[in-house]
């Protein structure tokens, strides 16, 4: 895309908007304004497609050409025949799906356009404003988010009369900005914004309280959070003591608390991106495999102190909006209680933890079975139930909170709160979420005081006449919650690493049959009769007959024929697309065997590959390859695949395999991108990572087979992805590593490139030992200049990164360092960063060149160049700074390093020829040379012994020393130090990594690094004695 355009939007949308813009530009360029209007109107009158082209073209010009925005908006208002409906729909689409990918100029223009739409009173502009408010993230005080919050608030404030005409907009604006007030404190800018938000919310609450009443009980929760602000203290007094002052229909706070909050309010405080990720985790991720997704979500949205307030929004959303179907509840999909448990245990603030627990129990306090849903209260009881065995501290703190909130929430309404909690527990037992509560309330793992309090508060639920039989709405699989937590109640919120992970094994689960990470236990598959009866009744008669034939098919060939007939029927014009979901459920059940076992043939030949893609289900792929992408039938098949993908995630890597293996699909790998965009994920990078992860878990051979084509066909998604490389090196063996190295050396595979290799290698420092060695082997197979990764030195620590250091040392040893002509100017910062083991590494490993710059060269850069590439220029002052840093930092090895005769001779040479300023600046360093000079004045016998202490001196002991040798030795020492200085300073001048953001992997260089996993056998690689 050109710099002036919308940024990295999806290719199809971007291309379409560019095309519409070029149509409009061609009609209006070089003509008068009147002629341009006539041309646009004439084109619009040709039909709906032309009308849409002009509207979208003018819309795109408004976003990309600020100077023409006013004129283009005026033209848009004149030519629009549908009340701007096309433009409003496109704005909503961009806000919901692509806002994060917009360039800053386009974001500014989008706000300007919405302001103009509101000024013009365009019908539907209120919906766009609400979508804009949804993009304002809670717990985020970055400049862009604050700018968006203030911009939308300015529109609503300026157009107050227009806002008052829409009840839902009033309620949504009050809910949004009441929530944001909590985040905006500290700086003067935030305080000013906070005051504007306070004034805005108070004016609407006092003037339009009945419209705000539709928010329900969560309005009280938000008002509690801001109750200490003086303006809201006055409002609280009216709510409690004088409700009629706010509205004659308002009877008191109980009226609010007994009203359930609508889903649309709970959903409005999550950005579309957050909502997509949560829905993905609760519908696609298997329980026990969620840690990587939770880690990503935490790094992206929950890593800062300000983001702690977001946890309440997430918990309220999960309880009130995410209500899984029975099919999901009975599957091994990640249950809601596990996500909520993770959110609770990763709180780093006691206040945030208390607010999060209140958000979890909020619907319990005034629960009414007639008005409220069991799904709103179910997660809390299941978190307590499932935490009891592995982590009783979680259960204890939640039960304690439940007991104490009854008298403390609002003392005048204690009776109502007690009744609400009792009704919740009673309803849980009636609906058999848990058959009995006695095993939970009277468990010996709880301390005596808590059990006594539970018996006092809830005597009805503390005795069980018979052994309890558990019946759960959300049935977990056999994997236990494996988050590691302290059993101390007061400390466990501080454990930021606590997560429902699969990395640590609970002591109580020892001896049980577990599924390990990379080598799952192969269980004998018992073929059961497939029952698709529930789905057949929902299909048309003709389609139902074909599905039954498919079920009865005796061989693969017969099934393929029937499958082709089904595809043909789907592609008919009168086919009801609503049946795609039911058809996908049938196919998923009928072809379960397709997704078991290995896909790749044992012996890979053209014939065996072609035979392996002859399965009936692959006929959908084959038909897809034979179609044009702009065909309506193509979209229908993509929709069918998307439905299948929801029910069977393995379909993704099966499609990749088909596109790689089938002759009919040669050159069609780009179809996978269309498939990814048609799924609920809607993003190529995220979909690709998910599918490669599923492939990694099922079939490592297939993963290696797909790797070359994946890296070749999707370089933008793969070459910058440390996540994908880690997936590969985490499971391959030495033979598979050798195969990948051969592919690289033959030119069939490129896994690194200059602009991203450094970032990926830095990420690899936290991987397992074998994984790191594999990554370095693959890197060394590429012909990438070593200088590209020299900046990694500042990230290396001698004791913590033996794998990277050993690989880097061996590679440095192979480099042929020599003097060369200076490369193009690339000056280093004169402020040398603190030296660590990285500097020591180069100090020890760099071979010594044979020349030394004189003092007259101190202002002129000298350079080191390897046989393959040029390094940055180094001045004499920088070399001396580096040596001085070595002197200060090499505490253990300083005596060995600075006792070497060549080093001391070099310092003597430099001291004799440099100016007074350098002598003064590096006086401590030159004092080492003076000590050497003193020792050299001793009797000849001692001097000979001292000279022989250097390895080089011992080697040349039979040759009489002369001035030339001393000069050469001096040169070697300083030049070696210069190489170390360059390596240490490299990152200062390293280019910024300009990678574009993706759905599940954004701006990795700014994300907090995860805690390094314990390496196996790392102690054998290096030791302190080195």
Automatic annotation (TrEMBL):
Amino acid composition bias (Low complexity), ranges on this chain: 828-837, 845-857, 968-977
Record's GO cellular component terms: cytoplasm; nucleus
Residue intervals of the Ints3-like C-terminal domain: 547-816, 864-929
Superkingdom of source: Eukaryota
Major subcellular site: cytoplasm
Keywords: Cytoplasm, Nucleus
UniProt domain Integrator complex subunit 3 N-terminal: residue ranges: 50-456
Family named by the database record: Belongs to the Integrator subunit 3 family.
Keyword Nucleus on entry: yes
Subcellular locations according to the entry: Cytoplasm; Nucleus
PANTHER family documented for this protein: INTEGRATOR COMPLEX SUBUNIT 3
The name this protein goes by in its record: Integrator complex subunit 3
Pfam families cross-referenced by the UniProt entry: HEAT_Ints3_C, Ints3_N
UniProt region (Disordered), positions on chain: 820-857, 932-1026
Keyword Cytoplasm carried by entry: yes
């Amino acid at each position: 895309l050109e710099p002036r355009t919308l940024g990295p939007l999806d290719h199809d949308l971007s291309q379409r908007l560019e095309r519409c813009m070029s149509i409009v530009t061609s009609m209006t360029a070089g003509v008068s304004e009147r002629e341009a209007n006539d041309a646009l109107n004439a084109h619009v009158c040709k039909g709906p497609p032309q009308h849409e082209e002009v509207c979208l073209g003018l819309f795109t010009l408004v976003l990309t050409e600020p100077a023409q925005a006013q004129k283009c908006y005026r033209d848009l208002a004149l030519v629009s025949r549908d009340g701007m409906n096309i433009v409003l729909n496109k704005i909503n689409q961009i806000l919901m799906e692509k806002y994060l990918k917009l360039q800053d100029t386009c974001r500014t223009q989008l706000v300007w356009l919405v302001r103009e739409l509101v000024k013009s009173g365009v019908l539907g502009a209120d919906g766009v404003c609400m979508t804009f408010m949804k993009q304002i993230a809670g717990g985020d005080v970055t400049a862009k988010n604050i700018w968006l919050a203030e911009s939308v608030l300015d529109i609503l404030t300026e157009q107050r009369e227009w806002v008052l005409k829409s009840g839902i907009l009033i309620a949504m604006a009050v809910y949004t900005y009441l929530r944001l007030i909590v985040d905006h404190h500290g700086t003067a800018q935030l305080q000013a914004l906070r005051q504007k938000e306070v004034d805005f919310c108070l004016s609407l609450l006092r003037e339009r309280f009945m419209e705000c009443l539709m928010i329900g009980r969560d309005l009280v929760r938000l008002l509690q959070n801001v109750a200490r602000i003086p303006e809201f203290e006055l409002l609280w007094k009216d709510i409690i003591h004088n409700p009629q002052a706010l509205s004659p229909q308002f009877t008191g706070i109980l009226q609010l608390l007994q009203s359930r909050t609508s889903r649309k309010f709970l959903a409005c405080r999550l950005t579309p991106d957050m909502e997509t990720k949560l829905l993905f985790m609760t519908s696609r991720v298997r329980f026990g495999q969620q840690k990587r997704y939770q880690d990503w979500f935490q790094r992206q949205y929950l890593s800062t102190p300000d983001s702690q307030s977001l946890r309440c929004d997430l918990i309220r959303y999960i309880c009130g909006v995410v209500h899984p179907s029975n099919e999901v509840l009975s599957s091994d999909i990640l249950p809601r209680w596990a996500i909520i448990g993770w959110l609770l245990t990763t709180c780093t603030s006691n206040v945030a933890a208390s607010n999060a627990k209140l958000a979890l129990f909020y619907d319990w306090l005034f629960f009414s079975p007639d008005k409220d849903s069991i799904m709103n209260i179910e997660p809390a009881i299941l978190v307590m139930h499932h935490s009891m065995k592995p982590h009783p501290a979680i259960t204890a703190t939640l039960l304690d909170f439940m007991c104490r909130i009854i008298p403390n929430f609002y003392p005048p309404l204690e009776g109502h709160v007690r009744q609400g909690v009792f009704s919740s527990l009673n309803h849980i037992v009636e609906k058999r979420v848990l058959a009995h509560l006695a095993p939970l309330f009277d468990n010996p793992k709880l301390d005596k005081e808590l059990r006594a309090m539970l018996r006092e508060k809830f005597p009805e639920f503390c005795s069980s006449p018979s052994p309890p039989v558990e019946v759960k709405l959300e049935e977990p699989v056999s994997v236990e919650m494996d988050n590691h937590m302290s059993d101390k109640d007061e400390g466990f919120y501080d454990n930021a690493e606590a997560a429902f992970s699969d990395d640590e094994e609970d002591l109580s689960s020892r001896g049980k049959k577990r599924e390990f990470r990379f080598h799952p236990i192969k269980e004998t598959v018992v073929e059961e009769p497939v029952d698709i009866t529930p789905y057949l009744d929902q299909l048309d008669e003709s389609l139902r007959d074909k599905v039954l034939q498919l079920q009865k098919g005796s061989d693969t060939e017969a099934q393929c024929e029937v499958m082709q007939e089904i595809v043909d029927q789907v592609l008919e014009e009168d086919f009801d697309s609503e049946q795609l979901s039911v058809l996908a459920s049938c196919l998923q059940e009928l072809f379960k065997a397709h997704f078991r076992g290995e896909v790749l043939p044992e012996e890979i030949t053209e014939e065996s590959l072609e035979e392996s893609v002859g399965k009936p289900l692959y006929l959908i792929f084959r038909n897809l390859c034979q179609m044009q992408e702009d065909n309506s039938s193509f979209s229908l098949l993509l929709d069918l695949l998307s439905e299948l993908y929801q029910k069977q995630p393995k379909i993704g890597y099966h499609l990749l395999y088909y596109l790689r293996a089938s002759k009919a699909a040669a050159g069609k790998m780009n179809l996978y991108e269309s498939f990814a965009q048609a799924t609920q994920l809607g993003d190529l990078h995220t979909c690709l990572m998910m599918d490669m992860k599923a492939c990694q878990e099922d079939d490592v051979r297939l993963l290696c087979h797909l790797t070359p084509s994946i890296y070749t066909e999707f370089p933008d998604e793969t070459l910058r992805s440390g996540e994908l490389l880690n997936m590969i090196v985490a499971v391959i063996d030495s033979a598979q590593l050798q195969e990948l190295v051969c592919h690289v050396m033959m030119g069939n595979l490129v896994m690194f490139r200059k602009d991203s290799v450094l970032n990926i290698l830095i990420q690899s420092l936290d991987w397992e030992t074998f994984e790191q060695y594999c990554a370095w082997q693959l890197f060394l197979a590429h012909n990438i200049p070593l200088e590209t990764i020299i900046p990694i030195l500042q990230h290396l620590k001698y004791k913590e990164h033996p794998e990277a250091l050993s690989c880097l040392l061996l590679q440095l040893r192979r480099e042929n360092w020599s003097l060369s002509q200076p490369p193009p100017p690339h000056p280093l910062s004169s402020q040398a960063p603190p030296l660590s083991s990285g500097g020591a590494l180069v100090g020890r490993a760099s071979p010594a060149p044979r020349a030394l710059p004189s003092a007259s060269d101190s202002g002129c850069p000298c350079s080191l160049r390897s046989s393959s590439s040029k390094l940055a220029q180094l001045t004499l002052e920088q070399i001396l700074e580096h040596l001085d840093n070595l002197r200060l930092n090499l505490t253990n090895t300083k005596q060995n390093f600075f006792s070497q005769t060549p080093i001391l001779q070099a310092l003597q040479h430099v001291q004799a020829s440099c100016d007074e300023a350098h002598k003064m600046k590096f006086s401590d360093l030159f004092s080492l040379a003076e000590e050497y000079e003193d020792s050299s004045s001793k009797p000849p016998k001692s001097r000979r012994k001292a000279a022989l202490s250097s390895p080089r001196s011992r080697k040349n002991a039979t040759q009489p020393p002369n001035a030339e040798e001393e000069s050469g030795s001096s040169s070697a020492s300083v030049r070696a130090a210069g190489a170390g200085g360059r390596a240490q300073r490299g990152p200062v001048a390293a280019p910024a990594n300009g990678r574009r953001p993706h759905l599940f992997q954004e701006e990795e260089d700014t994300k907090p690094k995860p805690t390094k996993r314990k390496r196996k056998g790392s102690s054998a690689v290096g030791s302190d004695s080195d």
